Structure formats: C-alpha cells, structure tokens
Amino acid sequence: MTQTTRGTDALLETLYAGIIEAHATIRPAVAVTPLAYSERFSAATGCQVYLKCEHQQHTGSFKYRGAYNKLRLLSREDRARGVVAATSGNHGQAVALAARLAQVSATVYTSAGTSPYKLEAMRALGATVVTVPGESLEAELEAVRQAALQGRPYISPYNDMDVIAGQGTVGVEIHEQQPQVDAVFAAIGGGGLVSGIGTVLSRLNPNAQIIGCWPEQSAAMYHSLKAGHIYPVPQGDTLASGSAGNIYPGAITFDLCQRLLSRSVLVTEEEIRWAMKAVAVDEHWIIEGAAGVSLAGALKVARTMPGKRLVVVLCGRNVDWPVFLKAVS
Fold it and tell me: Rounded to two decimals, what is the model's pTM?
C-alpha cells in the first residue's frame, strides 16, 4: 500500500464520519430533497430513472448543505471575525444565507463572468460581493489570500472537509430513499458533491457506480484526472457555468475523485440544452446548465445499463432567465 493510498483511506474514514454526523445534525435547517421517479426518462432509456431534486434545496442548489455545515462547525471566535468565500454563484448564495442565519458577516469573491442574477442574489442575502478579473480560479486564489491577510475563515466551495461532508448528505439521503441504486450521475466542477456522495455509497452501497459528468467546454477535473495531476485547462463558454472553471492547486477532491469515480462522461452543449428543455417540458422544473450536465450524461450512457436503477442529481436551478429561455427555445 502506497503512502498516497493510505492517505486517501484515512481521508475517506474521516470524511465518512463527518458526513454521518452532518446528516444527523443539520436538520431541519437543511431540507431533505425528494428523489422523484421519472416516468418519461425511464421509458426513454429502459432504465429506472430517479431525479434527486437538489434544485429544490434552500438557495436553489446542493451548495447550501456544505455552507451550512461549515458555518455550524466554526468556533465562536471564527464566527466573530466573519467569513470569506469564493464562488461562481451557487456557493456564494449558500454562504450568504448560512452566514445571515448565523449572524456572521460574509464577503464573497467572484469571477468577472459570474451571472448578474447570482451576484444580486448574494447581495440580497447580505453578503459583500467582490468581483475579481479572470475566471473562477482567480477568484478562489484572491479569496484565500484575503482571508489569510484579514485573519478570517475561508469557506472553499469544494476544497474543505466540512463542506464536502455537508454535500455528502445528498448521498445518505439517496441511500435512504433508494437503497438498491445501481448508479449515480453527478456534474463535477471542483468535485465536492461527487466526493461526498461517493464516500457514502462506497460504504453503504459499494456496488453502485459513481459516474462523473462534465461539459466538453469546461472539464478541468476530467482532464486533470486523465493526466494524473491538477493543471490549468482552457475553458470554453458553457451553459454549465455553475460547474465551470479550473481546480485549486492541491485540492483534496482530486485524490477523492481518483478513488471514487467509476466512469466519466463528457457531454456537448446541445446535449445539455436538450436535457434542460426535457426537464422543463416533462417535469415542469427549471434547472441550470450544471444540472443538465448530469441528466445529459445519464441519457448518453443509459442504454448500456438496461433495467438499472439510475439516480441523476439535479444540482441546481439558478440560471438567468434569458439564458434559460434561449437554451430551451
């Protein structure tokens, strides 16, 4: 057994314990979201398709789980200093709400390309928003720098055990709602959500496949995993802006994704667009592009898994209205 393997094993042990503790503690502040059986997608694929409705979570995405869990675990002294976060949108909204409920000040660093809708939502929840030139990784690096300079806790969107533990409660709920699931499909940006889900199911349902899904235009973790190390990847325009961007150097999610992912799927912008439209037409739900990525990934490979129970994590709904209308028109 290599040192890296031993280190990842220890990380998984600690993370699993954190997820189980979070699952038992964060209610009722964090909602248990439905696992909805989809007649439409089941008939279309020949599988049993369930939709995990994280777009119905507080602030419209799974990110609230991690933000709330991190805030509740901070010491009184850390809370008094206020928190710093970096975001492409959803994590910032989640931190803003969790901080407001905890009566903690929050400053959120965002990239220049962050949706104006998401910026306004963060401000409405009481956060101070600072826009940084460049893409999401630049916002992360600046947020980490400022947190260190100011002596304030930094809340990463994914590179934090407490955040991942909160996000991993999605996996516990999936197991409780459908113990016999064969595969879970999740969009991957920084890898926090899939790391949490994979950690849980590797213990509770080790036969379940954990399938990571990316837009072809922005697949930093995908290419880094292929290369065997994190490195900057050119980013294209994508509807899945919530999962876009490069990975923080040394992120713990890299080793976790290496260990936990069973399969990887890349999807096109047209496939994302079709998935968003299909959910709107058949389920009457608005989802954002990152949620469309996981469904598009499932639809792309489902025919190779006939009769299997598939869970698709619809990770969020926070999409600008003009972007959504253009996507589904």
Answer: 0.95
Tally Cβ neighbours within 10 Å of residue 307: 9
What percent of the chain stands above pLDDT 90? 86
Query: Strand (E) positions, the chain?
Result: 35-37, 48-53, 83-87, 106-111, 128-132, 154-155, 183-187, 209-215, 263-267, 309-314
Task: Give the helix ranges, DSSP H, for 236-288.
Answer: 252-260, 269-282
Does residue 186 contact residue 314 with C-beta atoms inside 8 Å? Answer: no
Residue 111 pLDDT > 80, yes or no?
Answer: yes
182-209 pLDDT tens trace? 999 999 999 999 999 999 999 999 999 9
Surface-to-core class of residue 76, CB atoms within 10 Å of its CB (0-12 exposed, 13-18 middle, 19+ buried): exposed
Residue 227, CA distances (Å) to 50, 192, 259 in order: 33, 20, 15
The answer to whether 64 and 94 are in contact (CB under 8 A) is: yes
Asked if residues 15 and 160 have their Cβ atoms less than 8 Å apart, the reply is: no
Q: How far apart are CA 220 and CA 226, in angstroms?
A: 10
Structure tokens at 196: 């949490």
Q: Pull the structure tokens for residue 99.
A: 């901080």
CA 75 to chain centre: 25
